[in-house]
Amino acid sequence: MPESLNFAFKSCIMDTMLEGSTLEIEKVKAVAECLDCKQEFI
Question: Which residue, 3, 18, 20, 35, could crosslink 13 as a Cys pair with Cβ 3.0–4.6 Å?
């Protein structure tokens, strides 16, 4: 997935003032919670 985001970022900044900038992707753990039963999903 990071490769796809990096490709899209590079495509979007081409020929703009952002050309030459970099994208930093930080992976973080996510937790979701069911609002009905309060069960957590990791």
Answer: 18
